[in-house]
Amino acid sequence: MKKLIISLLAVLLLVGCSSTTTKPTTTTEETDDTTELTTSSKELTVATNREVKSMDYVTTALASDHEINGNLVDGLLENNANTVLVGALAEEWSGNEDKTVWTFKLRPDVTWVTATGEEYDTVKAEDFVTGLRHGAEFDSGTSWLLQGVIDGYSEYLTSDFSDEAWSKVGVKAVDELTVEYTMAKDDEGNSISVPYFDSMTTYAVLFPVNKQFLESKGEGCKLGTPDKESCEFGTVKLDSILYNGAYILTTNDDKSQAVLTKNEAYWDAENVFMEKVTRIYDAGEDPYSTIKGFEQGIYSQASLNTTWEDYQTYLDKYEDNAYFSIPNASVFGVVFNYNRQVFNETNYATDSTLKENTIAAIRNENFRKAIRAAFDLKAYLSIGAPEALALESIRNVNNFPEAGTQSDGTLYYDQVTKTYNEATGENRDLNDGVDTFLSKEEALAYIDAAKEDGIEFPIHLDMLVNETSDSQTKKANSMKKSIEENTDGQIVIELVLRNTDTVNNIAYYNNDPAAADYDISTYTGWGPDYADPKTFVDIYSPITGYYMTSMGLGTVDKDGKVEDLEIKELVGLMEYEELYRVADAIVDDMDARYQAFAKADAFLVEKAFYIPTSQQTRGQLVSKIVPFSRPYSPYGTSEYKYKNLRLQDDIVTVEQYDKAYETWLKNK
């Protein structure tokens, strides 16, 4: 599970300097099995607004944590630069014929080290058993991922956490180097097939934890008797975890910097070219900071920003070098709070009538569709990006493009489009790059329909905005402008400007539905955890969905009763749940599975209880990073790894990048 935070910078900026070598740098497309890969620098600095808040990698659901944790601990498998699934700690793996049992054989002599680099132990199969149990007992934000997947896991979450209860969970160390997972059973007691389980192992909830070290971090860390208050495992202290990944976290200063130092004991150390990675906190106040550093020879990558007055001057200067970052698998959009209970951060809600009108409007389908029709996405995404890139970045479906291609070649978004049009009688293209819903005429028609439903206008909507970020404030004002103009002022977006910490704590880190202090939010997004459409569809499940919190709703109580049921039925979440569960039950026909999941995704678009709008921020870049040298994957945590990343002396040219991109596409 990867809950993403909107970037304060145009893109995640990578910076490198010092420790030069005189060896020539080889680009991706020039390499072969006999070519020695080199880098022009062995240090990298990353400008980012994201910091690690938890190093308990098996429990956190935040991408801001995984960006660091993914470099500190390896799992069974990972994706290489061409997105291919390859062995990490597992050197061999296989599923049985019907994919109801998966077996992984570990590399021998992979080492756990401490924060000082001292060898602690070797990684064993039992560590994967421990990691799974610790995550379950500590209420992992990613536990939903494995419910209905690993046998007995769901039942263990509500058990007494005894050894007897754990013995019924489908994971075991067959021997010191072999771990085996048994898939869950259906209602008839038959094991279900999970053909994508190998891709799930790239996500941190299935990563290993050394039991001896875990239980040394406090009485509450002991398996079977969890107590978060007396467990120090996975805090932000450098020595709170063991490391088996490419890097050791050697500095972690809040609002300043985090430093990752190469783990010399790493099993794949020869492919770790950056000996030091420094992540500098950048709140985004100065939109020129990175390009200035790039031109001073400090930064290895920068983004060209269309909001600069002299943008064209920079574009002319780098006409042979500036290229667009590639599409990504994430989805950002408009989240509605269906049951707002606190109004500390508000511009309007001192008036009780206005509050009541707003909550009634948000629960009204026609009102939500009016917002969607009024929101000019191209204008919004053009803040900081060229118009062509802004248009490419539009995303209309709450899933990723690679979610499920059918055997006849039908792409997932095409299936969702077909299903949506059949269900609604409309003729829209839901593929990326199409602003398919923008229409003032339709926005006003939806408002008229909402009025017939009893909604009283104008409606005011509080939206938190990070006042520190130049790009976010400009984007928020663009959104406000288009929605208010296209509804003739009948929908008013109230920009609640607050500092970074306030916005982060309410819109990103918050785990309490009652503390969601906004009416709408565009602050967070989602990235896939494994190669199946379920990875997105589940997040809006009224039973297990992670985004229920952001929507101001609960999931189920301790007795298994659905919380906020009346609201969920009203907005269509319970019907969505039925579509989701029908799709997830199909395991013997992948085409049928993808078609069924497309029904759920099409229904979400139809009811507009969430409005997908875009991918994670893309940018127009100038760079000295060797194109496609680092791992890439639309799912899991491999994309955060700095291993394999290399730098070159000269600025990447468009010709070089395009050639590398063509090669990369062929090898995917």
Give a brief outline of the structure.
By secondary structure, this protein is of the alpha+beta class. The chain is 29% helix and 17% strand.
Class by helix and strand content?
alpha+beta
Q: What is the global morphology? A: globular
| Estimated radius of gyration | 24 Å
Biggest sheet layout: 5 strands, antiparallel
Strand content: 15-25%
Please give a handful of descriptors for the protein shown.
Dipeptide-binding Protein, domain 3; globular; five-stranded antiparallel sheet; five-stranded mixed sheet; 668 residues; alpha+beta
Structural write-up:
This protein has 21 helices and 23 strands. The chain has 668 residues and is α+β, with helices and mostly antiparallel strands. It has a domain of 283 residues: Dipeptide-binding Protein, domain 3 (Roll), CATH 3.10.105. The strands form seven sheets. Strands 1, 17, 20, 21 and 22 form a five-stranded antiparallel beta sheet that branches. A five-stranded mixed beta sheet has the order 2-3-14-13-12, with helices on one face. Strands 6-7-11-10 form a four-stranded antiparallel beta sheet, covered by helices on one side. A hairpin with a 5-residue loop joins strand 4 and strand 5. Helix 10 packs antiparallel against helix 14, helix 13 packs across helix 20 and helix 19 packs antiparallel against helix 20.
Lay out the secondary structure.
Blueprint: E1 2-5, E2 13-16, E3 43-48, H1 63-72, E4 77-79, E5 85-87, E6 90-95, E7 101-106, E8 111-113, E9 119-122, H2 125-137, H3 153-157, H4 163-166, E10 171-175, E11 178-182, H5 197-200, H6 211-215, E12 247-253, E13 257-262, E14 276-281, H7 289-295, E15 301-304, H8 311-317, E16 323-324, E17 331-336, H9 352-362, H10 365-374, H11 377-381, H12 387-393, H13 412-424, H14 440-452, E18 459-466, H15 470-486, E19 491-498, H16 500-507, E20 520-521, E21 524-527, H17 534-537, H18 565-571, H19 573-584, H20 590-607, E22 610-614, E23 620-623, H21 654-667
Parallel strand pairs: 3-14, 18-19
Antiparallel strand pairs: 1-21, 2-3, 4-5, 6-7, 7-11, 8-9, 10-11, 12-13, 13-14, 15-23, 16-23, 17-20, 17-21, 17-22
